[in-house]
Amino acid sequence: MPRVLLIEDDPSVREGVGLGLRRRGHEVRAADTGEAGLALMGAFRPELVLLDLMLPGINGVQVCRRIRETSQVPIIMLTARGDDFDIVVGLEAGADDYIVKPARTEVIEARIKAVLRRLGPPSGSRPGVEQHGDLAIDRSGLTVAKNGERLALAPSELKLLLHLSASPEQVFSRQQLLEYVWEHSYHADARLVDACVRRLRHKLEDPAAAPRYIQTVRGFGYRFGPLAALR
Fold it and tell me: CA quadruple 21, 22, 28, 30: dihedral positive or negative?
């Protein structure tokens, strides 16, 4: 089972979540501050991070940004509030998903499995490297490079790009992308898709005002394809 780093300042949540995950076979290290969690990153080398959004000192958004400077480890935010602004800020910082507390261990475990499944190759993927303009997508190696330079993509960003680029010019609704990439079926989380697209565009240097790769279909969703191919 994957190693999980839990960064949570509430002792009852920290103990309850940690105990539940350990019973399911995870190796869990816990920290009560952002500083302590960052210190554990190198020594523990977690395969997934559960990160409380509201932390004393360095808050969860700052911790997420610090982790993303050096690692693309999957990050799931834990938030006691369903506040849209806080959630979107966390997603923009690089989180892959979020859970509103309190949540049963079964729910947390299901989200962990869903996030980690994004690290595997998508079903029906074909081997070899595809060239889309100056973008090279290696489906078998799960890597993406632009102008020969490999891009550091988080699991959700990578799976979203692989899914869109597998069917150039096909339009996918936000709900379709939400169900495929995040395995969520409820409409409220459509903001996961928009936040991930914004992060992906930033890394691809694909500005929303004049996108070359990820096109917005207003009022519906997104499609992939070099701009010339879409004319």
Answer: positive
